[in-house]
Design a protein that fits this description.
mainly alpha, single chain, 0% strand
Length: 239
């Protein structure tokens, strides 16, 4: 089991450096093989935060603090609201709607430049809140965040750094709640957890090298392709 977790952490962490999402989604089912749901979610959140902080350290010079302030803080508020509402209104129809939205937003990146459409920046805060809200209701918050950040036509370094900074803020807002409720469950899991985190770090270093080889245009299309694939998967899995 430990070997499987480490291999998955390395491979997925390498792949998600560009896209900015997917590590938690991939690791949660594996942790569920060894832990109850609440403990598994908590442990994955710890790995997720640690790896995000490491990725942020690698790309810190690219952070766009204006976007973090306008979009990121609003997305945190939306995520909290969504997580509170989730038990009441979460349903497959919402997931299908989210999948459709991801397909559209990701697909925009493949349009010719002269036909491309961008969301006006005056809607940044509304977009941040809405993406956080849907993420809190359904999950896949990282895919929504990446889809919206494509709207800014950022350099690959700025895209990764800014998205990761926002992800760190969101992780930091939920980890204390998990610690308060399930902190005792960490006692017997630290050994496994540290090894998985180390493998995720190694995967992130590998992914960072791969990103450096990608041209800007191809980088954005790789991210857009991952977003479209996530959207299609959400739709198909809920039909």
């Amino acid at each position: 089991m430990l070997l499987l977790l480490c291999a998955a952490a390395f491979g997925v962490a390498a792949l998600v450096v560009a896209a900015g999402f997917g590590l938690g989604t991939a690791l949660t089912p594996l942790f569920l093989l060894a832990y109850d749901v609440k403990t598994a979610v908590f442990l994955v959140a710890v790995v997720h935060l640690a790896n995000n902080l490491f990725r942020l350290a690698l790309f810190r010079r690219g952070i766009d603090f204006t976007i973090v302030g306008r979009f990121g803080l609003a997305s945190i508020a939306g995520a909290i609201a969504g997580s509170l509402l989730q038990p009441r209104i979460g349903n497959p129809s919402l997931e299908i709607g989210l999948g459709g939205l991801l397909v559209v937003l990701g697909g925009l990146e493949f349009l010719p430049e002269q036909k491309a459409w961008r969301i006006p920046r005056r809607y940044d805060q509304a977009g941040g809140f809405f993406s956080g809200l849907l993420g809190g209701l359904i999950g896949n918050q990282g895919a929504l965040r990446s889809a919206y950040l494509l709207n800014y036509a950022l350099s690959k370094e700025a895209f990764i750094a800014t998205g990761t900074a926002i992800a760190c803020l969101i992780d930091a807002s939920r980890i204390p709640v998990y610690v308060a409720n399930y902190g005792a469950n960490l006692a017997g899991a630290w050994g496994y957890l540290l090894l998985v985190i180390a493998c995720a770090f190694a995967g992130t270093l590998k992914g960072a090298r791969l990103v450096q080889r990608l041209a800007e245009a191809r980088f954005h299309r790789v991210v857009a392709g991952a977003i479209v694939a996530t959207g299609v998967l959400l739709i198909v899995s809920n039909l």
